[in-house]
Design a protein that fits this description.
362 residues, alpha/beta, Rossmann fold, SH3 type barrels, Elongation Factor Tu (Ef-tu), domain 3, 6-stranded antiparallel β-barrel, 7 helices, 24% helix, 30% strand, globular, RNA-binding, tRNA-binding, transferase
Length: 362
Amino acid sequence: MRVLAAMSGGVDSAVAAARAVAAGHDVTGVHLALSAKPGTLRTGARGCCTVEDANDARRVADLLGIPFYVWDFAQRFDEDVVADFVAEYAAGRTPNPCLKCNERIKFAALLDKAVALGFDAVCTGHYARLSVVDGRAELRRSADDGKDQSYVLASLRPDQLRHAMFPLGGSVKADVRAEAASRGLAVADKPDSHDICFIPDGDTRAFLDRRLGQRPGELVDDETGEVLGAHTGVHGFTVGQRHGLGLRVPAPDGRPRYVLSLEPVSGAVRVGAAERLAVREIVAERPVWPSGDALAGEVDCVAQVRAHGGTAPAVASVVDDRLVVRLSGELRGVAPGQAVVLYRQDGAGDVVLGSAMIAATS
């Protein structure tokens, strides 16, 4: 097969490309330039897509003996990922930019260009597994539970999964680093990037303040309606947040308060006790079915609401084109704007049934 290997400059994509070459595929490496100012997006383990990362990817490609290119997707990334991220926070929701990047950049913009150029598959360093059942691709959790990325890939359509390749799905991270070292790849010990790649200092609130300006509002006790403080914008908060609230009135029982909900129109940030975060039902919009099969009736599954953690047994169904998920146990800190991903457990590993964007909880 002709394979286009997306090479970020990190160890995972480097080993994924090396495995594709070792498997006998005709591999070409490509680094995506996602920042208009690539010199500003890496500080130690933070950020990605810098000139440094492009050079690291090029050195790996040279060692593997494969062609290598840098493709400029900065404008598309800013429009489809960064602008979406800002708009979602302004609307009182909490987006996942990694999920959006996979959906709109790596497996839309990149994949479309790859197919147009005659490539059969796009290879990435994601930790997820693909299997083929009755001629259809199924997305599964990876062998490394701690690194599993099936959650942020769960919005991919069947036609996109048919052209995807995840060589690391059956491996654990320690073995991937060891393999990189044995292959003589200089990135073997390179730190993983953390947090949001386009916010290298990790200060999301300051980034959003620069984009949105200050939008003053009040911090309100959800139970009594008492005003407990002021803030400069609902975009500085997310459901489940405990620290950095700026409350001027302590709780009568001395226990911490958490963000329960955000009201972007009125500017109110409602706070309360931890138990008021408990969620037993999720309603989500725009469901996607990676295998091509929508849910039929009520289906027992496991629901996940965060990239790492936040899982509970559930019964899910589709009602009026919305996904309704009734949890067997409660989850806390479930934020509108995040994805809920459904898994079916079987002997070969958890299979992704579908995903949707959380619109409401109760």
